[in-house]
Amino acid sequence: MAVEVDLFPASDFDGWASTYDQDVLDEARFPFTGYQSALNMVILLAEPQAGMQVLDIGTGTGNLAALLAARGCHLWGTDFSPAMLAAAQDKLPQAKFVLADVRQGWPTALPPVFERIVSAYTFHHFELAEKVSLLVALASHLAPHGRMVMADVAFADAASRENVRQAVGDDWEDEFYWLADETLPALQQAGLMARFVPVSVCAGVFVMEKA
Predict the structure, then answer these.
(1) Rounded to the nearest 5°, which phi and psi values hold at 40?
(2) Distance CA 211, CA 94 (A)
(3) How far, in Å, are 35, 97, 178, 180, 191 from residue 194 at the CA level?
């Protein structure tokens, strides 16, 4: 019987935790061109308010979470990397973090409902069908009139992705980057109203609500 290999094991991210914040701020290097602008766009589109229950999926070292905490949200975060989660907890001792893999279902340690569910640079590790399945499952935990806002490595279409691939050369890494022209119809077919806001040549933000 074939053994399924995890292409992105938690151990890879444990080893990255100590340099992650430095690496993502090198915006001249793919895939982080537009990283900070993408995080800021999440805040703009999520419209977080003080007291809101907000969940950050794949929180990493807590960079997006810090922007939400600064706005007075009741902040929760999940990640499957213990080292990343420890860095986030050090950065934001007032937030609540749960060690969990989004692919393994809803953690019992989380509240059942959130007004906002956000994420940054997490879902490009999943193929389109898995993205959609995970996002539909997450949307079931949105409060009425709730919203999901996800920043990531994303392109309008395959031609845009190819242009960037050629431009970055050896810095290119093949992962499951979002393509808006295939993602939006798939999300809509699955019952999520969605739109895409480009931020840079390789970054964008998806906004999703239940139809």
Answers:
(1) -65, -35
(2) 34
(3) 21, 27, 13, 10, 9
Furthest C-alpha separation in the chain: 51
Q: Residue 23's CB: how many other CB atoms inside 10 A? A: 11
- For 169-183, the pLDDT digits (tens) are 999 999 999 999 999
User: Which tens digit of pLDDT belongs to each residue from 117-158?
Assistant: 999 999 999 999 999 999 999 999 999 999 999 999 999 999
What is this structure's pTM? Answer: 0.95
Query: Which residues partner with 74 through β-bridges?
Result: 53
The crossing angle, in degrees rounded to 10, of helices 128-139 and 180-189 is: 40
SS (H, E, C) the chain: CCCCCCCCCHHHHHHHCCCHHHHHCCCCCCCCCCHHHHHHHHHHHHCCCCCCEEEEECCCCCHHHHHHHCCCCEEEEEECCHHHHHHHHHHCCCCEEEECCHHHCCCCCCCCCEEEEEEECCHHHCCHHHHHHHHHHHHCCEEEEEEEEEEEEEECCHHHHHHHHHHHHHHCCCCCCEEHHHHHHHHHHCCEEEEEEEEECCEEEEEEEEC
Listed residue (73, 70, 192, 193) closest to 134, CA to CA: 192
